[in-house]
Structures are given as C-alpha cells and as structure tokens.
Amino acid sequence: MFAPEPIPDHRADLLADMFRLLGDPSRLKLVLILCRGPSAASAAAARAGLSPQLASHHLRLLKAARLVRAMRKGREIHYDVADDHVRHMLADMVAHVSEPHHDEKG
Fold first, then answer.
1. How many distinct structural domains can be found in the chain?
2. Does residue 104 surpass a pLDDT of 70?
3. Contact present, 34 and 68 (Cβ < 8 Å)
4. What is the Cα–Cα distance from 83 to 35, expressed in whole angstroms?
5. Across the beta sheet with 76-81, what order do the strands follow?
6. Of the candidates 12, 8, 21, which has an alpha carbon nearest to the alpha carbon of residue 64?
C-alpha cells in the first residue's frame, strides 16, 4: 500500500492551497479538460461552460499554483496540465469517486 511521507509545514501549506484551488468546480473542470491534452484557453472555456474572461482568471490562478502551464501559439495561449503528477492524482480521484460506495459496518 502506498503511503506518502510526512512533509514539512510549508509544503503542507502549499499542498493545501492547491487542493483549495481544485475545490472550485470551475477550476476543477478546466484541469480535467486539460488532462485530456493541451487546449486553447477559449476552447477549454467553452468546454467547461465558462466565459473566456472567467476561464482566463481561473487558468492564471492554476498556472501560479503550478497545476497547469501555458504556451503561446501564435495569438492564442494554450494550456496543459503541468505534469503527470497532477494528471495521475486527478485520474485516481476521479476513479475513486466513480467507484460504488460501500458503507463499512463495524
């Protein structure tokens, strides 16, 4: 069984901040969309059902937290998940919430 190592307080604070960012459904939708591959900000916004301005705001916050990265392609900015750590963590959490719920009796 995998058990992460304890981390110092300052890293725990950073991790908690990342989870707070992902606690917003709109930001979470954007990151999940980007888990499927890079996307122009406008296309990610449309797929998430957000205005381009709101999506850009969320993407800036996610970029500052190193959850996504940005690349300029011509006049557009394309975003992608920052790395496979983020992709795997979200894939595991999606799998977890998709499993049937079994109450433990004891």
1. 1
2. no
3. yes
4. 9
5. 39-40, 76-81, 68-73
6. 21
